[in-house]
Design brief:
homodimer; about 425 residues; alpha/beta; Aldehyde Dehydrogenase, Chain A, domain 1; Aldehyde Dehydrogenase, Chain A, domain 2; 2 domains; four-stranded parallel β-sheet; about 20% strand
Chain lengths: ~425, ~425
Amino acid sequence: MQDSTDIVSYCADIAGRAKVASRQMVGLSTDIKNRWLLESAMRLENKASDLLVANKIDMAKSDTFGLTDAEKDRLRLTTDRVSQIAKGLRDVASLPDPIGEVLEGSIRPNGLEVRKVRVPLGVVFFIYESRPNVTADAAAIAIKSGNAIILRGGKEAANSSAAIIDILRGAAVDIGVPFDAVQLISMPDREVVGQLLKRSDCIDLVIPRGGDSLIRRVVSEASMPVLKHYDGNCHVYVDRYANLDMAIRIIENAKCQRMGVCNAMESLVVHASVAEQFLPRLVKELSKYLIQFRGDKRCIDIMPTATEATEQDWSQEYLGPVMSVRVVQSLEEAIEHINQYSSRHTEAIVTDRVDVAQKFTREIDSSAVMVNASTRFNDGSQLGMGAEIGISTDKFHARGPCGLKELTTYKYIVQGNGHVRS
Amino acid sequence: MQDSTDIVSYCADIAGRAKVASRQMVGLSTDIKNRWLLESAMRLENKASDLLVANKIDMAKSDTFGLTDAEKDRLRLTTDRVSQIAKGLRDVASLPDPIGEVLEGSIRPNGLEVRKVRVPLGVVFFIYESRPNVTADAAAIAIKSGNAIILRGGKEAANSSAAIIDILRGAAVDIGVPFDAVQLISMPDREVVGQLLKRSDCIDLVIPRGGDSLIRRVVSEASMPVLKHYDGNCHVYVDRYANLDMAIRIIENAKCQRMGVCNAMESLVVHASVAEQFLPRLVKELSKYLIQFRGDKRCIDIMPTATEATEQDWSQEYLGPVMSVRVVQSLEEAIEHINQYSSRHTEAIVTDRVDVAQKFTREIDSSAVMVNASTRFNDGSQLGMGAEIGISTDKFHARGPCGLKELTTYKYIVQGNGHVRS
């Protein structure tokens, strides 16, 4: 633990360096950014053994940090996983450069030439969980979109992340990307986050990824905008006109493929006219997943193994083998229920009717609305964005998966010839 | 004054009504929105005499509120001004509807159809100064972009604004726009704002327009995003390669056309190699405006009437006949000075050199960067956006003039045929 004077000056130094780097990055060409990504990828693979050594240190401490087996698995690096990380950087290199894109433009009646041009946000402060691959991904996305990034990773992956960042910064210096374009916080103190959240003079955006309590703390302390990544209480609505075979397949995929992720399904809404036929079949087909169903009264009448859902259940992101089930009398009631309880992340409808699908996609207020497809598709790579730094549950600035474009802003460049306003 | 229980329930009612209205507005057609705008315009003109009566009550109280002559002038309605307000609504009707625009779209390799579609933000809470025309403009922009709006105008214009809103709501009911799409706060208590700022469950965005202290209060209390409209400390840089005649014309327009607006020039930066020739000429040509110049040492050597600028002067938005003047040795020093002290609103360069203009427009981090044109052009109508609800000094979500598109977000609509993720 450091005393707080040390922490204040450490944070001032980090924030100031990031700001200087971000100004230098304004002129960085696509070519330089891509060469840095490719060079970093090559060095990560060439130095994989160094990374594995660093990772072993983290793994050895993982019991001390009380990591679960699943968490340990996500922390572990192997030669294959290092290659996956390198591939991630190469994928980002192959994406179009968002910077400099002319979003709109016109010549005004008086001859003024107006262009709205995409520019970097500046400095991004990213707080994230302990997976080493996220360290490399976040740095790649930030720099490709012209931003400097300050990384605050989980202490569980401190050695692995530091080894990755050393390689990325080494490549930066050799290729001509500012050394401080990527900085990793090395001080574990909680107060470091608090100090950096005060530096809106240097930091343009903070992205906290992790539990609800982390995000709430950041929102309450941050002096700059926060891109929030709250729960995914995702719904699947099985309409009266649903293909029930398809509904089973979609629910199995949405709920059971990976129960612990934010785009996994948590709540089922079923139209009453198919509930008696559908729900018992669902119970049977998903029996191997040992799912606990929590339903409303109409649901319990049909599914005797279901327990009664509390008000809390309707808003709950379980991230495990529990599912809430609501039986509705109409499409309108389904939409009303979902808009009331969802976290605006992802919802899906299964229906054969075009008019029903249209009403659902229009009226559901979530970042992604799926028709006859699994909620699991709300993901940057699945939607064609190539890479993501998170999935925003905000409506302001960016919504849904956040990739390169979501880390940019724009400015107006206006060219005149002595124009004055009359 | 109301007691606080009354205020809490009043605000809960307002916020809840706005939320309900915003959901109803999701399906509102362009045709209905435009018919409401045109009908409202017609009724405002037909009932101009009622508006003038209401305005007379406000004017009669204006001394009690301590309004300056300029403020009284902005508050005053005339038949002509009512026609201007009506014209503003017709202009908004003629703008393209932003809602439903497909921003991007693709068919993924697995056949999933992905569309990124522009949708309303939801409910906007707008706090503004006492000009009656702003009441109508804000309502028009909000509804055309599919949002419900809660208006909190200055108490000085309470009667004028209420009369305008009565007409707009009357037209809404008759045309089929939800009655509560526009609501005007009638309770003058300061606590009303505080209560509404807590309602992030109903309100998606707050836009405070007014003094610095209002914006800071809103930022510190708001639980939802705030679109900020801070100072405009706008710079004009006269380069060594400037056409000096053009520089004089641009500075005269930028500084003197309307001194009290946010896109007015406040700070002059001059390259040393033209300073001796340019500054005395500037003093002479602007003499009729009685401008007080506050400069650095090099400036004072050249302009004996200038006083020494303090550190505070470099960041100051004067909104009156004062100008800070800085002499620099290089383009780099000019950019450095501007990026350090500007409020990121609007900056201009006067230069004949393409390479200098390119470096300036790239490296200056402001919402609008003008080349050989007045800072006064940073304005929604001048840049071709048709109407604006403010000029954002934020980089997040929207930057510069905020019109229809800036009050929208988007969602992904994904169409499959039983697609599950592998």
